[in-house]
Structures are given as structure tokens and as C-alpha cells.
Design brief:
alpha/beta; 5-stranded mixed β-sheet; 5 strands
Amino acid sequence: MNAATGMQRVSVHRIGELLLASIQQELTDSLAVALQQDLAEMAAAGTDGVIIDISQVDMIDSFLARVLAEIAAATRVLAGRTVVCGMRPSVAITMVEMGLGLPGLQTARSLEDALALLEADEVGP
């Protein structure tokens, strides 16, 4: 909970030049917008990438999909990449059935895979 506003927040951690947001609760619209603002502010200070762990998320609706895509777009403007990791198969199936996409995002099975994906690009051509 953010003491200044009395509102719950998704905690965002800086790991070197990466930002990690691990969603551990139901992601309401207001919480998703707060996450987007927090990541934008932190990314503006410099980052190579953002990892969003959604392994505890049971569903993604069109609003959350749009917020995730907007986070990726903002990160790209700052020369970084966004990786979503830990998506449950049921979430992926529902997204496909609803026609929801995550433009500008890469996906990884686990946090370790997401880190490896971003690290591989750092040493790439």
C-alpha cells in the first residue's frame, strides 16, 4: 500500500538496468493504471527493459491487455523492451479466444527465461 495515497500498488524493483513488476493480487483497472505510471516514472530514469510477472494473474481483460501494450510502447520509446512472463495456459487460451493481443511485448515462460531473453539482447549483434 502506498502510504501517501492509501492505495495499493504493485511493487516494482530495479535489478541493475531492468525493472521487475510482480503482480501478486487481482489487478483492478486503477491498480493497472498506477502500475503503468510507476513503470513510466522509473523507466524515465533509465532502463534496458521491463519484466512483468503475471504468474499469479487468473485473467487478462481488454483493458489490462491495452495497459500492458502501452507499457511496452513507453519502454520502447526509452530504448528498452518489455517481457511478460509466467502467463498461465488458461489465460493465454482466453486471450486468443477473445482476440486480445499484446503488441510490442515479448513473452517468456518464467522469470529466469525473461531475464535470459533480455540479457541475450544485451550481448547480441
